[in-house]
Amino acid sequence: MDGNLYLEDNISKKPALELLPKMGYTYLTPEECNLQRGSKYKVLLKGILRNQLRRMNRFKFGGIEQEFSSANIERAIEDLDEPLTDGLIKTSEKIYDALMLDKSYQENNIVHLIS
Q1: Whether 80 and 47 share a structural domain
Q2: Each residue of 10-28: pLDDT tens digit?
Q3: Do 7 and 56 belong to one domain?
Q4: 13 is in which domain, residue-wise?
Q5: Phi, psi of 70, rounded to the nearest 5 degrees
């Protein structure tokens, strides 16, 4: 029996690396991740997160679809940005909790067109 069948790389990592691109995710090498983070103590890939928040977070007001303001996108990133000083598990828990608590950001720059 091949003992390599039960190694973590073979039972979880490799299948995930094959599945996730099929779901629309882009694989980044560790080097690319390090460049995106800018520091080994940072967890978020802020450039990618900023683009995704801009793309995914929209709302309708007065029948018009609006984008979130850059200021609110930056606030959301700040709220998620936890330094990796408490260890990976603790930091991941903090970020997960921040994501799951559904924090709201008020938009004040709404333009309502009256016709």
Answers
A1: yes
A2: 788 888 889 999 999 998 9
A3: no
A4: 1-37
A5: -60, -35
